[in-house]
């Protein structure tokens, strides 16, 4: 890794750290701006820190939240893999077959406009509870934005390379494999960065409404039980996990693009 690459990684991680600090500041200002929420319901970042690290039962609280976080991250990984795989395969099909893209792309965008929460009861009824509903709901959240970005990347392959492949008798599939996919690597990483937080959101919604496990279920159960410390701590942990996973993908993007000799946007 060159000094330029290390500087890019440091700048990227620094921007994420500043974003996290900004989130904490906005959180605090929100509670100050709406004092009617009160200290009973509203929890500051300091309150959450005390709940997880300095309170007498902090170890038990922290262990429970981290156990649920692991479940949520596992569910998010399932949804991410399903959604990204489906997006890559569908984007490749649409690039190879323009009629297929013209026929099914509007349908995909129409389905995207339906709120996920509204579809959850139907999805649960069809696939049941458990891993299946996690895969479907997480995959839906990841699929649509990733599909658009990956299709754009595949379509932006250098025309000259495609022409050379065609002249030498290469098929459309050969051009896709040798030209379009390598050119689309930056778009693939961009889609992954956008999709990672979405996969965590999809997993949380699936747990809230479908599986009754993980941090999504914790959020559902904490509110009626007035467990506000646990509620705010779970929200903060989900936020931190999203930022960390996003950072991992961003660092991987920088390293891979540097090795491929591509300039990162």
From TrEMBL:
Key words of the record:
Cell membrane, Membrane, Transmembrane, Transmembrane helix, Transport
UniProt entry tagged with the keyword Transport: yes
- Origin species: Gordonia mangrovi
Similarity field:
Belongs to the binding-protein-dependent transport system permease family.
**Protein name, UniProt field:** ABC transporter permease subunit
Annotated ABC transmembrane type-1 domain ranges read: 65-249
Grouped into one coarse class, the protein's main location is membrane
Q: Which GO terms describe its biological process?
A: transmembrane transport
Subcellular location field = Cell membrane
Give the CC-aspect GO terms.
plasma membrane
Recorded hits in InterPro entries, A to Z, give: MetI-like, MetI-like_sf
Q: How does it sit in the membrane?
A: Multi-pass membrane protein
Query: Which ranges does the record mark as transmembrane?
Result: 12-34, 76-97, 109-127, 133-155, 167-189, 231-258
Q: Which PANTHER family does the UniProt record give?
A: ABC TRANSPORTER PERMEASE PROTEIN MJ0413-RELATED, ALKANE SULFONATE ABC TRANSPORTER-RELATED, MEMBRANE SUBUNIT
Q: Which Pfam families match?
A: BPD_transp_1
Gene3D superfamilies named in the record:
MetI-like
């Amino acid at each position: 890794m060159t000094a330029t690459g290390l500087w890019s990684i440091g700048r990227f991680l620094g921007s994420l750290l500043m974003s996290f600090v900004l989130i904490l500041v906005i959180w605090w200002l929100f509670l100050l701006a709406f004092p009617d929420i009160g200290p009973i319901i509203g929890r500051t970042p300091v309150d959450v820190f005390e709940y997880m690290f300095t309170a007498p039962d902090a170890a038990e609280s922290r262990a429970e939240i981290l156990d649920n976080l692991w479940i949520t991250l596992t569910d998010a990984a399932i949804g991410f893999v399903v959604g990204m795989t489906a997006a890559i395969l569908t984007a490749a099909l649409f690039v190879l077959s323009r009629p297929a893209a013209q026929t099914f792309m509007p349908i995909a965008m129409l389905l995207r406009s339906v709120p996920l929460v509204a579809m959850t009861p139907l999805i649960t009824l069809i696939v049941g509870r458990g891993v299946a509903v996690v895969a479907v709901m997480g995959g839906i959240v990841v699929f649509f934005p990733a599909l658009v970005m990956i299709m754009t990347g595949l379509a932006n392959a250098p025309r000259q390379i495609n022409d050379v492949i065609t002249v030498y008798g290469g098929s459309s599939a050969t051009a896709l494999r040798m030209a379009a996919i390598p050119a689309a690597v930056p778009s693939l990483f961009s889609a992954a960065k956008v999709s990672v937080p979405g996969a965590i959101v999809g997993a949380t919604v699936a747990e809230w409404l479908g599986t009754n496990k993980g941090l999504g279920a914790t959020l559902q159960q904490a509110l009626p039980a007035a467990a506000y410390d646990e509620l705010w701590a779970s929200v903060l942990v989900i936020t931190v996990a999203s930022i960390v996973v996003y950072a991992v993908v961003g660092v991987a993007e920088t390293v891979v693009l540097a090795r491929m000799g591509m300039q990162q946007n």
